[in-house]
Amino acid sequence: MGQMYYTMENHKRDIDVKQYVYYIGSYHYNWHDSMELLIVLQGEIEVSINGRNNILEEDDMMIINSNAGHATLARKQNSIAMVIHLHPIYFSSYFSDYHLLEFRCKSSANNRNDEPYKKIRRLAVEMIYFMGWNSPTEKLCCESLLHELTATLVKYFPPEEISSTEMASNKRKKDAVNEIIRYIDKNYKSKISLEELSNVFGYNKSYISQIVKLNLGINFYEYLTRIRLREATYALSNLEEKISDIALSYGFSDVKSFNTAFKNSFGKTPSEYRKQLSIKKDSQILLTEKRYLNEVEFGELIRGKKEMEISSDILHQSKKEQEVNEILNKEDYQTIKEIRKELDITLKKITKIEEKLF
Q: E strand or H helix at 30, and its extent?
């Protein structure tokens, strides 16, 4: 049963796309060259970006621009999102300074049911149905849906062009933050302070505090605590390890501070959480791995979401072509092609003979 994780590349048209559906897990900071469209299909998540913490509920969506450092965190269990990564070079045919473009697209309870958002959700779901197949028809359908989706974004959420000076300034700050984040991620088990970071990187403490808050939406100590909690939570899946040992091993001063931080973040103590793990064995997989939905799970998830329902004619046609693709391999297709060519030649010969006879 296939996972809902697909890629599409067409370098002649500057298309480089990834699309997937997955469970949002524990706090994770990252950045990438691609522009990201994130759509919440179930649950509630927090997205920290550009100094703001954004709460997205079911059917909400948000654009995360290229190279923007961001972090996601599930606020409810079994929160699921669909993500589309699109490299900005796609827009090079339409915008001369495509690398300076920034989109402002974020829905909320006030507008998530407005037509532009509904259309984007429908197109995104339709597109992923074609992403997994490789026939010319399906590739064309997928690219067509991508063009319609991006055209809808540009029409209703026209991108702003930031100055090259502002971009260079932002890049310097992001590079500095990324260096700091990498250091924290590597040394979170040790005692880390702003003073230590200042000595390591040569920035003053107030500057470090400012750029971390500006890019992550949380202060340095909160980020450090979240990373420690994330890694300690993974360790809790080892039921034989003592909670007190885990607390000390992952940077907490004592088990009390670990319990307090854990309960503030997850609404339960490490002991209560561990009891849940012993009951739900599959929870351990969700903790440590990025879990993508399979096709059946995805179908069940969107069933009942009327705006996301795909035309039965489209699905029937695509499934029929998929069945043919599964039966026939490339050699079979080549053989059929050669037979058809020979038949065409034979039919032409028959036609010429008939013309002479009659």
A: strand 28-30
